[in-house]
Give the backbone structure.
Amino acid sequence: MNENNSGLLNYIELLKSHEAALKSKLLAGDKSKSDRWLFIGLVGMVLVSFGAMGGYMLIKPSGRWLIDLSIVLIALSYVVLILMPIIKIYQQRNTIKYFFTMPLSASVEQNIKKEALTDERFLADFVRLGKPTLELGLLEIKHEREFLSKRINLIVGPVDKLGILPGIISMVITLAKPVAGHDWVMGLAYGYIGLVVLSLSFINLLVKYDRVISLTEVALSCCDEVKGDVQG
């Protein structure tokens, strides 16, 4: 039992090292830095907007400027959400022609190469942990991933399927007519942007889980191949 516990701890430490190495590679470029700062700015505007709304609730009916500031910040948050993919396209403008002429090669270069090199570097370390440890680690991480997915669905619901369109529509309606009290449309605009920000964070976490699950499964198949070669 102690050996299994030690192996599982080694598996967890290896997962941490793999995540750190992958993160350092992905964050090395200027494009990733701009994405990170845009997301930080988005989160900051949403938090300040909610804070301004809370301040207005405490001192209303005075402090009307707080709710005006809050609405402006929420509107800017939706603008940032729209601009994020546009900025991404602009940053990669030099590869757009290459993407249309050789789409598979461009996709591999942009989205797969860095991750694949990191996975290849760590694969041998995973295999050395042995099949029993990998099977136990895979069981635990799959269970945690499923549990996390259920919690995320409970919080954000179908936001990832609907996109940001409902929030944008409610924000346009909020800006187009005077706000009397706390209109449900305005509430939808506020609540939806919060759910979108949470969804962006959660989806990134789920993608990380899926990656290490796949890497562990590859390592397990390598263990089977090594065992077959030895028996042969």
About this structure: The chain is about 90% helix and 0% strand.
